[in-house]
Write a structure and sequence with these properties.
The chain is mainly alpha-helical and 242 residues long. The chain folds into two domains: 2-126, no CATH class; 133-241, no CATH class. Helix content is 69%, strand content 0%. It contains 13 helices and no strands. The protein has helices spanning 2-7, 13-23, 33-46, 53-65, 69-81, 84-87, 91-105, 112-126, 140-160, 167-178, 182-190, 203-220, 227-241. Helix 4 runs parallel beside helix 7 (91-105).
Length: 242
C-alpha cells in the first residue's frame, strides 16, 4: 500500500485504476484495521487519475460499511478524489458521493482529527484542491479573523450576482458564529446555495450543491457543529457566488 502511494503520481490513469481495483478487497470488513487504513490511504493517492464510476460506487459501499472513524475519514477523502470526468459521468453521482461523505460527519465516533479530515473531504467535493486545508490549523483568533474576512468577500460576491437583498443572511451567519451557534451559521449560509446561476458541470454549481447539502444536513441533525464547518460553508458560499 505504501509503495502504491509513492508510485501513484508516476503511474498512468489505467495503472492507477488497476491499482484502485486491487486495493478494494483490502477494505472488506474482515480485513485487519491497520490494513484497511493503509489501503484507504493508498486509494486516496491513486484516486486522482484512477477514477471510474464503478470504483466510486464500490468505495461508497465500503464507506457505508466502515465502522472505524480513522479508516472512514480516509475513505471519505479517497472518495472525494474520485471526481472529474472519470467518476462523475452524471451530476447524480457527484450528489451521491457528497451525501456519502457527509454521512460520515453524523457518526458519533467522528470527532477530532477524523472529523477534520472528513470535512476536508467535503471541501474537495466543492472547492479547488487544498483550498480548505490551511484553515484547519488556525487558532481560534485567526479563525475568527478568517471568518470575518470571508464574510466580507462573500458579501462582495453576492452584490455582483444582483441579490443584495440576501446580504442579511450573511449577517445572520456571522452573528450565529459569534454566539457559538455554529450549526445555525451553516444553515443560514446553506440558503445562499439557491442563488447560483452556473450550469451543472461548472465548479461553482458544485460548490453550491455541496453548500446546500451541508446546510440541509445541519438543519436535519441537531448534533454539535464545529467552527471549521462554518469556515467551510463560507468558502463554499464565496465559490458558489463567484
Amino acid at each position: 500500500c505504501a509503495a502504491l502511494s509513492a508510485l501513484a503520481p508516476r503511474l498512468s490513469a489505467a495503472e492507477n485504476r488497476a491499482a484502485a481495483e486491487t486495493l478494494l478487497p483490502l477494505l472488506a470488513h474482515g480485513v485487519p484495521r491497520g490494513i484497511r487504513f493503509a489501503a484507504a490511504r493508498a486509494l486516496r493517492d491513486v484516486a486522482k487519475t484512477g477514477a471510474s464510476p464503478e470504483i466510486a460506487l464500490s468505495v461508497m459501499a465500503r464507506l457505508s460499511a466502515e465502522t472505524d472513524a480513522a479508516v472512514a475519514s480516509r475513505l471519505a477523502f479517497a472518495l472525494s478524489r474520485f471526481g472529474g470526468d472519470g467518476a462523475d459521468s452524471a451530476a447524480t453521482l457527484h450528489e451521491s458521493r457528497t451525501a456519502a461523505i457527509l454521512s460520515v460527519l453524523d457518526r458519533a465516533e467522528s470527532y477530532g482529527l477524523a472529523h477534520k479530515q472528513t470535512l476536508a473531504a467535503v471541501a474537495e467535493m466543492g472547492l479547488d484542491e487544498d483550498v480548505f486545508y490551511p484553515y484547519l490549523g488556525l487558532t481560534d483568533v485567526a479563525r475568527d479573523q478568517a471568518v470575518a474576512r470571508l464574510a466580507t468577500e462573500t458579501r462582495r460576491a453576492l452584490r455582483k450576482t444582483g441579490h443584495p437583498t440576501d446580504e442579511p443572511t450573511i449577517g445572520e451567519a456571522e452573528t450565529a458564529y459569534t454566539n457559538g451557534d455554529f450549526g445555525g451559521a451553516v444553515v443560514a449560509l446553506g440558503r445562499l446555495s439557491a442563488l447560483h446561476t452556473a450550469p451543472i458541470a461548472n465548479r461553482a454549481r458544485q460548490s453550491a450543491d455541496v453548500l446546500g447539502a451541508l446546510g440541509r444536513r445541519r438543519a436535519a441533525h441537531e448534533g454539535e457543529s464545529t467552527p471549521e464547518e462554518v469556515t467551510l460553508a463560507f468558502l463554499l458560499a464565496k465559490a458558489a457566488l463567484s
